[in-house]
Amino acid sequence: MTSATSVHDTAWTSGRVDEVERVGDHLVRLRLELAERSEHLPGQHCVVRLRAEDGYTAQRSYSIASDPADPLLELMVECLPGGEVSGFLHDEVRAGDVLEVRSPIGGWFTWAGDTTAICVGGGTGVVPLVSMQRHAARLGLADRLRIVAVARTFAALPYAGELLAGGAFVALTRENLGDRVAHPPYPDEIERLAAGVERAYVCGSVGFASFATRLLGEVGVRSDAIRVEQFGATG
Ligand SMILES: Cc1cc2nc3c(=O)[nH]c(=O)nc-3n(C[C@H](O)[C@H](O)[C@H](O)COP(=O)(O)OP(=O)(O)OC[C@H]3O[C@@H](n4cnc5c(N)ncnc54)[C@H](O)[C@@H]3O)c2cc1C
């Protein structure tokens, strides 16, 4: 396992698109083969840079969904209305295309399996948690990782089936799921998952992150144990 790298340690490389899967209307799953690959830690992200013929560039961060042992870099991107980079990745990218990528990035929002943790992700905020879940499953550490995945509907939740099958608690806010009536997670639903954890990870939009951080505080998770990754509009 390599140690966590920071944004300054990584160089741009090329990523050949090996697989493109459009999931529903708004999500695209991309699997890239990097020309130069450094092993990542679950929770890290990469930067994708697009370049137009006139030299104009746009770059955005995307969480890595792959387990570190996966030879390919997997991303799950939500196409935002008017989104410059997410729109291109969703609508235009084809297998065989080559993108510029810098990876892996981030040393803070990582889980290597050494702590008992609760993770709360909203929407595409579950993507780094999927890397953690895959890593935990491969190493037999599933008992150390408790995942709470929140989305409006089942179809809008990336990796919904995989998260559920891996034991995640799924809370839908606009659709009932089994016996559970649509609502954000209640404190008493996550209390048992938060019991005894050493660390918490929160990932999603700015609004979701503040909701989830408050929720964790209500069930007794200390604020200095909570690590937050926010997907803001500046990407
Ligand atoms: C560490 C990190 C990891 C991320 N991981 C993922 C990931 O795994 N999957 C993923 O889909 N995205 C992820 N993001 C968000 C991503 O970087 C971009 O912000 C997103 O794809 C929008 O870029 P865009 O060029 O399409 O939109 P832009 O052209 O920048 O913006 C278009 C419109 O969307 C609004 N907007 C921009 N970003 C957001 C946002 N995040 N939420 C709501 N509205 C927004 C803008 O205000 C504008 O109205 C991550 C961000 C960070 C910082």
Q: Mean pLDDT, as a whole number? A: 94
Q: Please count the helical segments.
A: 5
Measured as a percent range, the helix fraction is: 10-25%
> How do the strands of the widest beta sheet line up side by side?
4-3-6-1-2-5
Distinctive features:
single chain, 235 residues, alpha/beta, 6-stranded antiparallel β-sheet, 5 helices, disordered N terminus, binds flavin-adenine dinucleotide
Task: Reconstruct the topology from this structure.
Layout: E1 12-23, E2 27-34, E3 45-51, E4 57-63, E5 73-78, H1 84-91, E6 98-105, E7 117-122, H2 127-139, E8 145-151, H3 160-165, E9 169-172, H4 187-194, E10 199-204, H5 206-218, E11 226-230
The protein binds flavin-adenine dinucleotide (FAD).
Task: Summarize this entry quickly.
It is built from 5 helices and 11 strands, in the order E-E-E-E-E-H-E-E-H-E-H-E-H-E-H-E. With 235 residues, the chain is an alpha/beta fold.
Give your account of this protein's structure:
- This protein has helices at 84-91, 127-139, 160-165, 187-194, 206-218, and strands spanning 12-23, 27-34, 45-51, 57-63, 73-78, 98-105, 117-122, 145-151, 169-172, 199-204, 226-230.
- A six-stranded antiparallel β-sheet has the order 4-3-6-1-2-5, covered by helices on one side. It has a five-stranded parallel β-sheet with strand order 9-8-7-10-11, with helices on both faces.
- It is built from five helices and eleven strands.
- 20% of the residues lie in helices and 32% in strands.
- The chain is an alpha/beta fold.
- It binds flavin-adenine dinucleotide.
- Residues 45, 60-63, 76-78, 80, 82-87, 124, 127, 205, 229, 231, 233, 235 line the site of flavin-adenine dinucleotide.
